[in-house]
Known about the structure:
The chain is α/β, with parallel strands linked by helices. The protein contains 16 helices and five strands.
Amino acid sequence: xxxxxxxxxxxxxxxVAGNTTMTATVDRRAVERCKDAIEKLGVVxxxxxxxxxxxxxxxxxxxxxxxxxxxLGVKKMDAVEVDVAxxxxxxxxxxxxxxxxxxxxxxLCEGLLIQExxxxxxxxxxxxxxxxxxxxxxxxxxxxxxxxxxxxYEMVKSGLLEARSAEEVSRLPQCAQFAFAETAVREGLPKSxxxxxxxxxxxxxxxxxxxxxxxxxxxxxxxxxxxxxxxVNAARSNQDKASVPPDVVGEIIKSVRLxxxxxxxxxxxxxxxxxxxxxxxxxxxxxxxxxLRAMIRGLFYPGKKEAGQxxx
Length: 312
C-alpha cells in the first residue's frame, strides 16, 4: 500500500502534455470554477500523470485542473505519477478506471447539500451560480428531498438502501414509501426493479389489489405485471400486423396500375430483336404477377383453386 501512497510527486507543469480527448469535454465554465476552487482551497483533485518510456509525461486525468493551473500562472503541481511504458491496453484500462471514479454524487445527495446550504443562509441565486444550474433544476433537487420519507432517508444514511434507489422510492406517496423500502431491502431488489414497481404503482389504472401486492410482495407483483404485459403486447403486435389503412392499399394499387400501363407502352415499341436483354427480368415479373393474381382471386373466391393448380 505504501508504494501507491508515495506516488504523489511535484512535477513541472510545462513538461506535462495535455490530453486532447479530455480537452474536448472540458468547457470554459468548468475551468473558471476550477480556478476559483484552486484559489480558495488549492488543488482538490490531484491530476494523474503517466510517465512514458521516452520520459514524456502524459496527462491521464485532471485536464480541467491542468488548464486552470496554467492559466493561473502556476509552474509546479502535485501529481500522481504512474508508469505507462507498457502496452496501450493497460494504459486504456487505467484511463477508464480514472473516469469511473468521477461519478456525480446523485440527485438525492445534491438535494441534501442544497438544503443544507439554504439552511445556513446561502440564497438560491448563489447556489445556481455556483452549480451553473437553472432555478428549476435546484427546485427539482429540493423537491426530491422534501418528498422522501424521513425513515427512508435514515435507511440511506445507514447504508441499507442505495441513494439512487431511494430517489425512485420518493416517487411513491409518502405514506407508502417506508413499507415499500423495507420490503425492497429485504428482498434485495435492484434499482431497475424498484423503478418498474414504482411506475406500476403510480399508474392511474393500477388496481388497489396490485398496489397492495407491490408494497407487501414486490417480487410476485413483478411477475404479475409481466404476465399482464405479455398478452397486451401480443394483441398490439397482431393488431399492428392485421390493420392496414385502406387508403394505403388504394395508393399501392393505383401506383402499380400506372407502372403496368407505362411498361405496356414501352414493350409495345421495343423491336423483337432488342428484347433478349429483358427476358429474365420479364420472366421474374410474370411469376410475380401470377402469384399476385392467385392471392387476389383467393380474397374473392376463398377455397377455389387456380386453373392448373395441383394439390400438394
